User: Which sequence fits this backbone?
């Protein structure tokens, strides 16, 4: 299994002969409130032939209409069932809506939709392939549901946010430490690091390094592997 950081929450997971892309977002500017820190490592065209796309929710920095339109008609795009219609409106063709704890198999890859908590309808996903389990949290706050995720799955990797802004859109350092305690993953790869508020007043000093220090202070042994755009880990 190989995990490559494309940028922000867009991650390419290669396993069991399948290429799985999470929360595709290839914009380079951001929006009026948030700036993109670095461009994505790959272009839309370079990733248009992936085998499976997972969409945690439909916010602007997790969905890319131009990319969706470039996908072939037979590429499944998995999204929360309640808002699958919105993913279709953004250009995705073969949308599969899942409710929490629902599973779907794509050849040798199994995807389970798991609970998440955000300011919009959202899901996390657990991807199982090659006898490994990867949890993709999307944008989520810490929640007691993570204890059930940790109980149901023996997680090798957690792709999850570990820092947030002054108006919190995801869990920050403290919440991420609580999440690790509940989930017990072997490795955490931080996501949602590709944008920042344009106003300095909305920024915080939270970072993967701060999260790692808190993790160690809590006595948790989970490894933190920070991947910058273009970096990968096996």
Assistant:
């Amino acid at each position: 299994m190989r995990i490559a950081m494309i940028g922000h929450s867009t991650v390419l997971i290669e396993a069991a002969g399948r290429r799985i892309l999470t929360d595709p977002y290839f914009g380079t500017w951001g929006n009026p409130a948030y700036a993109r820190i670095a461009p994505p490592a790959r272009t839309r065209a370079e990733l248009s032939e992936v085998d499976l796309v997972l969409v945690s929710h439909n916010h602007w920095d997790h969905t890319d209409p131009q990319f969706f339109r470039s996908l072939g008609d037979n590429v499944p795009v998995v999204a929360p069932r309640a808002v699958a219609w919105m993913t279709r409106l953004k250009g995705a063709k073969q949308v599969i809506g899942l409710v929490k704890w629902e599973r779907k198999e794509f050849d040798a890859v199994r995807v389970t939709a798991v609970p998440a908590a955000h300011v919009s309808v959202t899901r996390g996903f657990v991807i199982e392939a090659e006898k490994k389990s990867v949890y993709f949290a999307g944008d989520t706050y810490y929640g007691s549901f993570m204890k059930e995720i940790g109980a149901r799955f023996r997680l090798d990797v957690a792709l999850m946010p570990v820092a947030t802004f002054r108006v919190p859109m995801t869990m920050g350092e403290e919440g991420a430490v609580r999440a690790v305690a509940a989930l017990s993953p072997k490795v955490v790869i931080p996501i949602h690091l590709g944008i920042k508020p344009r106003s300095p007043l909305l920024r915080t000093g939270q970072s993967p390094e701060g999260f790692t220090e808190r993790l160690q202070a809590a006595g948790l042994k989970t490894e933190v592997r920070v991947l910058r755009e273009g970096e990968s880990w096996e």
Notes: The chain has one domain: 2-233. The longest strand covers residues 2-7.
